[in-house]
Here is the input.
Amino acid sequence: MSANGKILRKGFGLRKQVAPLLSRDFDSSLVQRARDSGSRLEWPTLTVRIAKEFGFCYGVDRAIDYAYETRARFPNKRIFLTGEVIHNPSVNRRLAEIGFLFLDGSQGSDARWEDVGPLDVLLIPAFGVSIKLLERMRQTGALLVDTTCGSVLNVWKNVERFARDGFTCLIHGKWNHEETRATASRALVQPEGSYLVVRNMEQAERVCAVIGGREGPEKLRIDFESASSPGFDPVRDLVRIGMANQTTMLSSESLEIADCIRKALTLRYGEERILDHFRAFDTICSATEERQSAVVEMMKSPPQLMLIIGGYNSSNTGHLAEICTETVPTFHVKSVDEILSATEIRHQPAWTTELVTTKDWLPSGDLEIGITAGASTPDREVGAVIRKLLELRGLDPETIPPLKD
Ligand code: SF4
Here is the structure.
């Protein structure tokens, strides 16, 4: 039977059926033990402290659950993904193993858009898709299963309201990140809608300088061409601004950017008229905030070093690494495979996109290591890293709590 591009936004009521499979693929008894024992595990010469909040957020939990429920509901159908369902390599690999086909060619998939038809299923990822991509998906006639996180939908609602009310949407995010592209596309639901994406405070200050007349508009227009709506005109489009953000940005920076834009507009138009020129809603998701607050708290009495576990393209994982790097030696690794030996670790330093190998990273003697993981990292990955640390410290396996993973 053809689905004609119908969109399903709820699961299939198979949560109980898929729960044991999810647990088998992503849980870790060792990490559960840490959660049960105040986020601290101790062995002779090695203490592992885990941040109070880490790993799968509610949006990722739900997306993976839907993916597994979809597989269970349609065991004989082809199920396609436009790309990663979340930014974690092991999760996407697992989906490929259970038959998901990746239209971006990742996971060794040779699936093509022309192959997708009305008898198939297409999964929308947790960070959503742009309006244009959604239309393309609909045109295949496949059944669409939408795993877009509710917190992302909440941002879209605000962006659409800004556009309706004639405000340019200023997004704190990475312009080429899937979620930000999807969010920005919502500003264009109105013919006159416009958006501009700023990555950080430095870029926001340039926008403030243009609002305040300290920088000319033309250079900003050229420099931000890829990060703004077609035909973006700083003179016309920086008069009424509504703030939004990619849900996984550094929440403190999002607030600073909103404050900086508000001040610039206040200076230009006056406090009494600010409501006509500036709007902001806090749209950083609570899961992102909690994970960031947990490492800020940990850094008040820091361990000797931090391991941050999560995909290198995972925005929220990268921000956790940035916070910790300010205080202690920090290594962001995508998985246990990056821990090459007791003397070598491959990792992505904060604020970079390059991988480097660091030597002599693991101090000898009594050691306290801190661990956290991004919102798309399964507990299983965290458990694997802890086991590797034990192995490298040559700890007697008998002292290791019994493991299932
Ligand atoms: S990080 Fe936040 S917005 Fe993104 S999927 Fe998780 S809960 Fe949703």
